[in-house]
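Session log. Operator J.P. requested a structure for one protein chain; no other inputs attached. Running the standard single-chain path with token output.
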Amino acid sequence: MGFLANFLRNRDRRKLEEAVERSPSIESLAPLVKLYREEGNLGRARYTAKRAVELFPKSDVAQRLDRETSRVERAARRDHLRRQIENFPRPHDYALLAELYREDKELDAAEKICRAGMRSFSNYGGLPYTMGLIARDRGKPEEAKEHLERAVRLENHNYKALRSLAEVCVTLGQPDEARRHLEAILYFAPGDSSVQKMLKEIDGGSVAAAATTKVKTGRPGVEETQIEALPSGATRAAERGSPLDAAVRQFRAQVPGIEGAVLVDAFGLVVASALDGGLGEELAGALATNVWRGGAETSAPFGLGALREVEIEATGGRLLVRELDEAMLALLATPEAKIGLVEMKLRELAHALRGEV
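Structure written below.
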């Protein structure tokens, strides 16, 4: 009976997939999403539900499918993160789990998870950042400011923490402090339109220019960058010693032409890196996050769907930023690097890191 049920289910799924491929409609997309959910294939369910919304934005059925799939996916993600924390606790797992509860308006549970994480991982900036958002959601801007200031002290190139801190300062009637935090973002994200807009609102129409200095890249054929590589007291690569760092270092060693690699989590914080001494990992992570954010903002108006990869090619090499589950990997490659080999090793790395980030 189990074999027959599986056979019929597979047959139905293939028919629906073929129908969606030929001529997508709500009548084919809706049962396909539900079938994926029943099979536990939440990734495909989420993708198909999003596609339904994109194709039929005015359909109540598509909107309901998207909400239901999101709810199922979030519940499964919660369970997964709880198991991760029980078996192998890591700081970004606590932060991700707390953020899921915060987004669902379960603020007490979110705070409890954050505090548990902070007891074990006091130097991870994602946890005080989430605590700041919890306090902000509770209407406690002063408390939010304290938590967000700690997050920035731990990771001074944390875009999300700096921006949230600036917003809280505006709420508290502290425009000078808000301006300082926004200008700190422009240091590593020059030209960020949303930050410039906030500065205009604060300054009544005049945007303060972010100070920049030049630093040698040490790479022939590459012009000097406009971002100074500041030493960071919050860099803790040596303390991590995690399988993530080992996997990223191994990836760099196996692929000729890769000069650096950095893995950044959903909070914009570095969780693994293999970099030379010239560029600090925090700054590298912030720059990679800025490239990704710019790519997402550019691709959205063209209706290209979810961003998967951003590549910048210059005379001195390439910068590739690739999505890996809930993280992203940034690679700095020489012109001689064989992209086919890079892609193959990237797939291997993605498989090795699945469930790790």
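Operator note: The chain has three domains: 2-77, 90-203, 237-353.
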